[in-house]
Hints:
The chain has helices at about 5-10, 10-20, 25-65, 65-100, 140-145, 155-160, 170-185, 200-205, 235-240, 295-315, 360-365, 395-400; strands at about 125-130, 150, 165, 190-195, 200, 220, 225-230, 250-260, 280-290, 320, 335-340, 345-355, 370, 375-380, 380-390, 405-410, 420-425. It is an alpha+beta fold. The strands form 5 sheets. The protein has an 8-stranded mixed sheet with strand order 1-10-11-12-15-9-8-4. A 3-stranded antiparallel sheet has the order 5-7-6. It has a two-stranded antiparallel sheet with strand order 2-3. Strand 13 and strand 14 (about 375-380) form a beta hairpin. The longest helix is centred in the N-terminal third of the chain and has 37 residues, at about 25-65. The relative contact order is 0.14.
Amino acid sequence: MLTIQFIREHAELVQQTAVNKNIPFQVNELLAWDTKRRELLLQTEGLRAQRNKLSKEIAPLMKQGNLAAAEPVKAQVKQLNDDLAGLETKLQEAEAYVSEMLLLAPNIVSADTPVGKDDSDNVEIRRIGEIPEFDFEFRDHVTLGEMHDMIDIPRGVKTAGTRNYYLKGAGLYLHLAVQRLALDYLAARGFTPMDVPVMVRPEALNRTGFFPTGQDQTFELTGENKWLVGTSEVSLVSYYSDEIVDVAEPIRLAGMSACYRREIGSAGRDVRGLYRVHQFAKVEQVVLCQNDPAVSEAMLQEITGHAEGILQLLELPYRVMAVCTGDMSQKTHKQYDIETWMPSRGAYGETHSSSSLLDFQARRSNIRYRDEEGNLQYCHTLNNTAVASPRILIPLLENHQQQDGSIYIPEALRPYMGGVERLVPSFPLE
């Protein structure tokens, strides 16, 4: 989160950031309440000082038996206590409102973040791999999944409602294989693999910046005061909340977990197939490092490079996009999306996201380290989707399909698929 001092000193920048991010946040309103809070604090402290001074005068007067002089002082103290009670109530209200508004203030964006209204204004940075040209009528992942008896969406809808599915046989093995590939890839590069809680307290979501602004996208466990996470980023960052950590070398974590999202606002979008579902699995990279912009920028490039490395092992064409302000969340300072080619869409579709948050999460989560002088500093945090499934199965199946309906298995995946080089349809083609 931003500090109130930073917002006072950079009010115009923060307001422009809110406008660019399409966030309905009014800096002037926050600053007006902050001014009111400070005035009430001064008044309250002044009255407390007067009351305490007068209270000290009462005991000597009473000891001297000078009741006539003590009574007016007592009356003044009583009046001050009554005045204080009213002021303290107003001060608490002002402090609560300022705290609430601070949670809504947007993180500033990097100087090289494009300004734009939505994802159509994201800027392509690089494009890797060749888009396949089929000399036959290609099939989408749903058709391929049915041919191979690996995806069953109708029964998923029957059982759990829209945006649900079953993975069967080779579909499940592919789902697990891409996760294991990503996990092993990251472990070999210094990341600690972790299985994390997916049911968390609301404080964990507040501290990591997913609440209050993203609450409508999160499933609540009614009566439990817990919520299902949409990414293991919540649990990985929260692992170190209220701690002082050693980031002489960046802390690299890789969480493998189920994830849940309500997909509010996506009605009518991506209704066919596995692109936008309520339940999925991810291997997530999270990094905590020193609050040096050069260090966190290097880490952003590193984790983005890991996601690209995994896509290259999957032999999939993709492009890297610089995300514009209007497509960024409240908490993000700088973001890249990676979009993978999906033949059925005739376009690239988002499969990965990398974000740098500076100290936005660490301040909310109270994660600090000692610098070279021994002073406590807030960390920088970063995150990236190493792989998300079943969405990644869309380009994996569609790009690697063959004319006979079989599906080529990239060499890097074969050790996780029992050495299989190609999946064969479960029934003959007409």
